[in-house]
TrEMBL record, chain A:
Full protein name: Protein UXT
Protein's organism: Sesamum alatum
GO molecular function, one term: transcription coregulator activity
Coiled coil: none
Signal peptide: none
Family matches, as Pfam families: Prefoldin
UniProtKB/TrEMBL annotation, chain B:
Protein name per its UniProtKB record: RNA polymerase II subunit-mediating protein
Organism the protein comes from: Sesamum alatum
Key words of the record: Coiled coil, Nucleus
GO biological process: negative regulation of transcription by RNA polymerase II; protein folding; response to cold
Keyword Nucleus part of the UniProt annotation: yes
TrEMBL record, chain C:
Protein's UniProt name: Prefoldin subunit
Keyword set includes Repeat: no
GO cellular component terms, semicolon-separated: cytoplasm; prefoldin complex
Sample GO molecular function, one term: unfolded protein binding
Keywords recorded for this protein, A-Z: Chaperone, Coiled coil
GO terms under biological process: chaperone-mediated protein complex assembly; protein folding; response to cold
Gene3D superfamilies: 1.10.287.370
Keyword Ribosomal protein: no
Entry coiled-coil feature ranges: 82-116
InterPro entries according to UniProt: PFD_beta-like (IPR002777), Prefoldin (IPR009053)
Entries under Pfam families matching the protein: Prefoldin_2
Highest taxon listed in the record's lineage: Eukaryota
UniProt family annotation: Belongs to the prefoldin subunit beta family.
């Protein structure tokens, strides 16, 4: 009886440690990745909006060549922008096209974030549940006394 | 020959599992260092390719490229002023340099990275030695080896020092004199390798003391923490057992690199008392000086190594602010 | 028996104190590590600045803006920073020493307490 209980507790604990916790860590890491993407695209949107607002058609910038070495670069015409659409493809857009694309992408990303958030919450809830179960298992003999 | 010392099974001093645990701990540290090493090598490779790039860029007055705009977009554009580079010196300082000057800077950086790699390798070698020592101890312990302590009573010099070391098979050492000749060679080599290791540790620890840790650690050891029931969180209990018994490196490993080498000298010399023969002792003293200087030096240096993480930080900085940097350059 | 209990409570308190001290020491190590890294970086910068000729253009990244700086000024700033960090490190060393002294005296006290408890218990056992 007692050993069976202990066995059960051990199994529960294993489930939490080997399954639920790694799942949680994984889900959080995934969500962080999406957050990063979200930031990239919102930055892009803001930058394009800035270009529009100030009607910048050419610009000069510093390009990182690696190891923190920069060189000046000249962009003669900013009205055409190549945006990363995934899988290594870059599509040539005008500003307004780019903004439309970014808006769509942002929406998709925030949906993903929501999903992950829900997943994380449910894993957390499961962990809590199992922990509660373990506690009950261990507490029972105490209350019986 | 009458027995004049004590015989202790090694397993009572270092239980096999403890030694194995210590060994595993060291292995973990080695793995960590290996990662650092890979990272450094990555930096070196990056550095080399940037040097090549910087060298070639001024060959033309401009290069057509896709100019990155944030992380997800590009503009078609071109590199201009191909002999002018902005180089980060660190701490947010940038300098305007020509290709040649930039290459000089990068080469200096590369050299610094190389030295870091070298010292990291030295550390790893040391750790490997440690690990194999623990493994050997674990094995000996498991095999039921015994340690024999005898006070050396012989020539005048011995009184002062009592410092020969030795551990040997129960069989062979119990009848040392009789079988001496036969097993001598084999035994010597083993003894000496052990001695070397012990000496290394001692020296290391001494250095550590000099550099910034104080001898109070020794008291700690002497008062044999292992007796204490108090649990100290900072160092886990398995280490403690070993640590009190002998090993200087277990704690050093368990903590972050910056810290203390608990010093073994008092312990290890008392632990390993004289086996016999004065000539042994002479040899004991000879090797450590030569064989250990190099590696101890680097260890200490490394315990507090400054730059280890710096390149990491730079990359961090780079990735975290590309957009703003971009923005600020806009005209 | 009451005496033993008393001693044991005392022991526990001391053990807690020791724990706190050890945490402080660990924190000290961490901060020191950070500063040491910064010191290293600053020294590297200084070395490179020293190698520049006087009319070289030097900029400092302040927030998102690259601000042009006088080389001499940059040099002075980095030096100041190095001085500051060195002083900080020295201060940390002093604190560390202090902490370790405290730690050791605590350890000794604990050890003595344990011995007393053991002695008392042994005495009880025989009696």
């Amino acid at each position: 009886m007692d050993s069976a209980k202990q066995d059960k507790v051990r199994k529960f604990e294993e489930f939490v440690d080997r399954r639920l916790k790694p799942d949680l860590v994984h889900a959080i890491a995934q969500r962080d990745k999406v957050f990063e993407q979200q930031k990239i695209f919102s930055d892009l949107r803001r930058n394009i909006e800035n270009l529009e607002k100030n009607s910048v058609t050419s610009l000069r910038t510093l390009v990182n060549l690696g190891s923190e070495v920069y060189m000046q670069a000249d962009v003669p015409d900013t009205r055409h922008i190549f945006v990363d659409v995934g899988l290594g493809f870059h599509v040539e857009f005008t500003w307004s096209e780019a903004l439309d694309f970014v808006a769509a992408r942002e929406e998709k990303l925030s949906r993903q974030i929501e999903e992950y958030t829900r997943l994380i919450a449910s894993i957390k809830a499961q962990i809590k549940m199992v922990c509660e179960g373990i506690r009950e298992l261990l507490q029972l003999p105490v209350t019986e006394l | 020959m009458e027995t004049m010392g004590t015989v202790t099974p090694i397993s009572s001093v270092f239980p096999a599992e403890e030694a194995q645990k210590a060994s595993r701990r060291v292995q973990d540290t080695i793995a960590e260092r290996e990662q650092q090493l890979d990272q450094l090598k990555g930096f070196i490779n990056d550095n080399v390719s940037v040097i090549n790039l910087v060298q070639k860029l001024p060959d033309e007055t401009h290069h057509n490229i896709m100019v990155p705009f944030g992380k997800a977009a590009f503009f078609p554009g071109r590199l201009i002023h191909t002999n002018e580079f902005m180089v980060l010196l660190g701490e947010g300082y940038y300098a305007e340099r020509t290709a040649k000057q930039t290459i000089d800077i990068l080469k200096r950086r590369g050299k610094a990275l190389e030295t870091k790699v070298e010292s990291l390798k030295a550390i790893m070698q040391d750790l490997e030695a440690e690990a194999s020592f623990f493994d050997a101890t674990a094995q000996e312990s498991a095999e039921g080896l015994v340690e024999i302590r005898e006070d050396y009573v012989g020539e005048a010099s011995s009184g002062a020092e009592t410092a020969g070391y030795g551990k040997s098979d129960s069989t062979s050492s119990l009848e040392v004199d009789a079988r001496k000749a036969a097993v001598e060679d084999e035994e010597y080599t083993r003894i000496f390798s052990r001695i070397d290791e012990l000496e290394k540790e001692e020296e290391e620890a001494e250095k550590a003391n000099e550099s910034d840790e104080d001898e109070r650690k020794q008291n700690e050891l002497d008062s044999t923490i292992r007796e204490m029931s108090v649990h100290q969180e900072v160092r886990s209990s398995p280490v403690q057992a070993i640590d009190a018994a002998k090993a200087p490196e277990a704690p050093a490993v368990s903590k972050d690199g910056s810290s203390r080498r608990d010093c073994p000298p008092p312990k290890s010399s008392t632990m390993n008392k004289v086996l016999e023969l004065p000539e042994e002792k002479k040899k004991v003293q000879a090797p450590p000086t030569t064989s250990n200087m190099a590696f101890t030096g680097s260890i200490i240096e490394h315990a507090h190594n400054i730059g280890m993480n710096m390149p990491e930080q730079q990359t961090g900085a780079r990735s975290s602010k590309p957009v703003s940097r971009f923005k600020m350059q806009r005209k | 028996m009451a005496a033993v209990k008393e001693l044991q409570r005392d022991l526990e308190n001391k053990a807690n104190d020791l724990n706190k001290l050890q945490k402080d020491i660990a924190k000290n190590h961490q901060v020191r590590k950070k500063y040491t890294i910064q010191l290293g970086e600053n020294e590297l910068v200084l070395k490179e600045l020293d190698l520049l000729n006087e009319e070289a253009n030097v900029y400092k990244l302040i927030g998102p803006v690259l601000v042009k700086q006088d080389l001499a000024e940059a040099n002075a700033n980095v030096r100041k920073r190095i001085d500051y960090i060195s002083a900080e490190l020295k201060r940390l060393d002093a604190t560390l020493q202090d902490l370790e002294e405290k730690q050791n005296s605590k350890k000794e006290a604990i050890f003595k307490l344990q011995q007393r408890i053991q002695a008392l218990q042994a005495g009880k056992g025989k009696a």
